[in-house]
Specification:
Layout (H helix, E strand, L loop, with lengths): L2 H17 L9 E5 L4 E4 L15 E4 L15 H10 L5 E5 L2 H9 L9 H6 L5 E2 L7 H5 L2 H4 L4 E4 L3 E6 L2 H24 L7 H13 L18
Parallel strand pairs: 5-6
Antiparallel strand pairs: 1-2, 1-4, 2-3, 4-7, 6-7
Helix pairs in contact: 1-7, 3-7
Bound molecules: zinc ion.
The site of zinc ion has 5 residues, from loops.
């Protein structure tokens, strides 16, 4: 992706994420891959709803900030870990969405087998264990989940979405939070109605025909291992 296009897209995603309350104040961070050796990352200490293209920070995949005087997000180690383990990922969105984070801070699993949209576009959403923000450990705890999942909750913290491009990652974050809001509203009304195994299988077959990876029942999933 051309650098000036990537800078504009990151600013646009910042505006949308702030408007939808996926982040507040200077929370959250987003990035995209520019080429085989560099990424573009949001800066630290700035509200993502008001970023300008020149605010974004170019960083090498070895972690070197390539623009003098700029400070990249403190979550840089997490981004480097993700891009190293998922070479096809080109966009990453980390946010603190109100409804999804409510699940993450209560240890409430995000259920599958409820909504077709979620089955097809998100798959299983595991919760990665807590780690201190801004540390290598914050990236390391994600590693067991990265091979099999596109979207994760982060225990007592927020959520993470990956995609083959920046907007796909962003839309996955939107879908996750929208779904979590629906679940909370539904639970106020009564019990959730689950799709049957046959109906879920139909959706997984549809997903396969669309060429989307089926990671929901992957044998190496930490969820399937009980982790
Ligand atoms: Zn965060």
């Amino acid at each position: 992706m051309q650098e000036h296009v990537a800078r504009d897209l990151l600013c646009e995603i910042g505006r949308r994420a702030y408007a939808r309350r996926l982040v507040s104040a200077s929370e959250g961070n987003f990035s995209c891959r520019l080429d085989g050796s560099t990424i573009l990352l949001t800066p630290t200490g700035i509200c993502k709803g008001f970023m300008q293209p020149h605010d974004l920070v170019k960083v090498s995949l070895s972690g070197e900030v390539l623009e003098a005087g700029k400070r990249a997000s403190s979550e840089l180690p997490m981004y480097l870990t993700i891009y190293k383990h998922r070479p096809e990922v080109r966009g990453v969105v980390h946010a603190h969405p109100v409804y999804a984070t409510a699940f993450a801070i209560t240890g409430t699993p995000v259920p599958n087998g409820i909504l077709p949209e979620v089955e097809v576009f998100l798959g299983e959403v595991p919760t990665a264990p807590y780690a201190l923000t801004g540390t290598q450990a914050f990236g390391d705890v994600l590693v067991p989940y990265l091979a099999e999942h596109q979207v994760l909750l982060l225990q007592n913290h927020g959520a993470l979405a990956l995609g083959p491009d920046l907007f796909t990652a962003y839309y996955r974050m939107e879908t996750l939070d929208h779904y979590c809001q629906m679940l909370l509203a539904a639970r106020a009304l009564g019990e959730l109605q689950r799709l049957t195994d046959a109906q879920v299988q139909e959706l997984l077959d549809l997903k396969a025909r669309m060429g989307l990876p089926d990671r929901r029942h992957a044998p190496n999933s930490p969820i399937n291992k009980g982790g």
